[in-house]
Amino acid sequence: MSGGQGRKLIALSAIWLVLLLAPYWMVPLGGYTALATRVLVLGLAAMSLNFLLGFTGVLSFGHAAYFGLGAYGAGLTLKYLAPSTPLSLLLGMLLGGLCGAVLGTLIVRRRGVYFAMVTIAFGQVFYYIAFQWNSLTGGDDGLRGFSRQPIDFGAFRLDILGNENNFYFFVLFCFALAVAVMGFILRSPFGRTMIAIRENERRSRFLGIPVERHIWIAFTLSCFFMGLAGALYALVNNFADPKGLHYSQSGDFVMMAVMGGMRNFWGPLLGAAVFVVLQDYLSSITVNWMSFIGLLFILVVLFFPRGLLGFLQRSKA
Amino acid sequence: MMTLLLLFNVTNGLIIGAFYVLMALGLSLILNLSNVINFAHGGFLVIGGYIAYAISPYVGFWGALLLAPPLTAIIGLAVERVLIRPLYGRDPLYSLLLTFGLSFIIEDGTRFIFGPQGKPVTIPTFLSQPLSNELFFITGYRLFMVAVVIVAVALLFLLLRYTRLGIRIRAGTLDLETVAALGINVQMLRSLNFAVGIFLAGLSGVLAAGQLGLEPTMGTGLLMPSFIAIIVGGIGSLPGTLVGGLLIGVASGLTAVFLPAASEAVIYVMMAVVLLVRPRGLFGEEGMMS
CB of B20 within 8 A of CB of B243? Predict the structure, then answer.
C-alpha cells in the first residue's frame, strides 16, 4: 500500500514538475509557449468533461456549449463591462455554469445515448445564438476587440499580455486551483457517490441515493469548470469563436478524455496534449488534416478504447 | 400577399421537413435497434448525393435516383461490417465517437475528390418548371420530391409491418435478447437494419442534390434537426419521428415569416418545451428515454 502511495506521489510530483517547467523544455523541442498554454486550457476542459463522463458515467456530447459560453462571457466582460482579467474569468465561469445548471434540470432524467442526444441538441442552441446575434457576438466572425489585461496586485502589475511565460504561469495557477477543487470533490463523500452511480446506478438508487440530484450537481459542477476553461481560452486567443460552442468541439473534448484514459484523473490532460500537438502539426503539413483526425478517432475507438493511460496500466499489470 | 407569403413558407417548411423525416427515420431505425447514434448519417447523405452526381451523366437523373440509394446502402453495409460491428455491446460512447470521426473523413474525402465548390445535379427540365405563375415556388421537382418521400416512408412502414425482416426489426427494438434467443441472426438483422437506414440517407442525398446542389458540408446541417425531430417525436417511435420532422420543418418555415433570425432557434425551443411538458416526446413510450 505504502509503495503504491509512494509511486503515486512521485507521479504527481513529476506531472507538476513537467507542467511548471513546460515553457523551458517545450521551446527547445520545437514547440512554442502558446501551444503549452493551449494544452493546459483544453486539458482543463477535457478534465472538466471527464469529471462527468469518467467519474459519474454519463455521456455529455454537448459540453463545448458551456466552454464557449465561458469564452463569450469572458470576452463580453472585457469588451463591454470592465477591463479586468479576474472579473472576466469569474463571469465567464458563472455564465457557463449557470446555463448548465438550468439546462441540466431538463437533461438529467435521460440516460445513455438519449442523454448524449439531448445534450448535443441543447448545446447547439448556444451555437445558434452566438451565430445569429451579430450585434453582440460578432456572429460567424467571432467576438473580437478585447484582450486580456495585466493583473494588478497593488504592489506590482503582472503583465500577462505581452509576456507569454507570465501568461502561461497565470493559466497554470488557475488550472491548479480548478484541478485541486476537482480532486477534492472527487475524494469527498459526494465524489465517492458519483463513482457509485457510475458503477451501478440501480444499486445506488436502492441505497437511497437521490441519483438525479447527484447527476445534476455533477453536471452543473462540470459546466462551471468548463466555463472557466472557456474563459481562459478566450484570454489565450483574445477572441471567442462560435465554433468553440459547436458539437464538433464537444467531440474533440470527448476524444481527448477517451484518448488519454477516462478512468484516470490525469488522462484527459494527456489526451489533450497529444490531440492539440497532433492537430497543430497535422494542420501545418496537410490541408486534409480533418481526415487524419477522423482516422485517429476510429483507431482509438477500435484499438485503444481505454486510452493511453489505461493501455499502459494494463500492459504493466 | 400575406397569405401567399405564408403559403410559400409553409410549403418550404414541409419540403425541408420531408428531408428531416427521411434523415431522422434512418437515424431512428439504427438508434432503436442498435443503440448507435450515427453521426455519420449526414455523411452518407453526402455520399448518396455525390454518387448521383457522378453517375447521372451516364444513367441520367432517373437512373441516378434508382441506383444511388442502393449503392450508398452497400457502402453503409461495408462500414457497419468493418467499423461498427465490433462496437455493439460496448458503451454507446464508442460508436458515437467512431461515427463522429467517420463524418470528418467523409466530409474531407468528398472535398478532396470533388472539390469544395458546390456541384449541380441536372434534373429533367419538365420538373424544374413552376406549375403556375401564381404559385411560382411550387415547382414540379418539389412536388416530385415530396411524392418520393411519401412513397419511401409508406414503403418503409409497410416493410416494418408486413415483412419478416420488418417484424424482426420491430421485435428486436423491443427486446433484442429474446429475439436472439429465438434463433434469429441478430448480427444480420442489425446489418440489414443499418442498410435500410443508410438507404434512406442516400435517397435524401439524391433528392437534396437536385434541389439544393451538392456541397461536402451539406449533411451536417441536416443532422441536428433530424436529432430534434427524433427527440420531439419521441425516441423509439417511428411515427413520432415522422410527425416530429414535419412539425419542426413547418415551425421553422413559419418562424421565417415573422422572425427570420429565429428560424433555426425555434426548433430548439420546441424541443425544450416538449421535454419540459412531455419528457418522453410526443409519441414516445414511457421509459424509452431513460
Answer: no
CA distance A278 to A284: 10
- Whole-number average pLDDT of chain A: 86
Mean pLDDT of A209-213: 87
CB spacing of B231 vs A121 below 8 angstroms: yes
Identify the residue among A61, A110, A113 best suited for mutation to test binding to B, counting B beta carbons within 10 A and taking the highest. Answer: A113
| Amino acid present at B6 | L
Domains of chain B: 2-277 (1.10.3470)
Q: Show residues of chain B in contact with A122, CB under 8 Å.
A: 268, 271-272
Instruction: Name the nearest CA neighbour of A251 among A290, A225, A221.
Output: A290
The answer for B135, left when phi > 0, alpha when psi is -120 to 50, beta otherwise, is beta
Confidence of residue B240 (pLDDT cuts 50, 70, 90): confident
Cβ–Cβ below 8 Å for A128 and B102: no
Using CA atoms in the order B18, B20, B26, B29, what is the torsion angle rounded to 10 degrees?
-100
C-beta atoms surrounding A105 within 10 Å: 13
Grid coordinates belonging to A276 = 492539440
A294 contacts on B by Cβ (under 8 Å): 101-105, 108
Chain A CB contacts of B83 under 8 Å are 298, 302
Please name the amino acid found at residue A270.
L
Q: Which residues pair with B119 in a beta bridge?
A: B214
- The pLDDT score that the predictor gives to residue A180 is 93
% of chain B beyond a pLDDT of 90: 23
Decide: helix, strand or coil at residue B39: coil
CB-based contacts of A148, cutoff 8 Å, min separation 6: A78, A85, A88, A160, A161, A167, A235, A238
The complex's ipTM works out to 0.84
- Contact between A172 and A20 under an 8 Å Cβ cutoff? The reply is yes
Question: CB–CB of A134/A146 below 8 Å?
Answer: no
| A110-124, B128-142, B192-206: the lowest-pLDDT one | B128-142
Closest CA to A267 of A224, A227, A299, A300: A300
Query: If residue A151 lies in a helix (H) or strand (E), which one and from where to where?
Result: strand A151-152
Per CB-CB distance under 8 Å, the chain B contacts of A248 are 100
pLDDT top residue among A56 and B198: B198
With 50 as the cut, is the pLDDT of residue B266 above it?
yes
What does chain A come to in residues? 317
Domain residue ranges of chain A, discontinuous segments joined by +: 32-246
- Nearest-neighbour CA in chain A from B262: distance (Å): 8
User: What are the tens digits of pLDDT across the range A145-178?
Assistant: 777 877 777 667 777 777 788 888 888 989 999 9
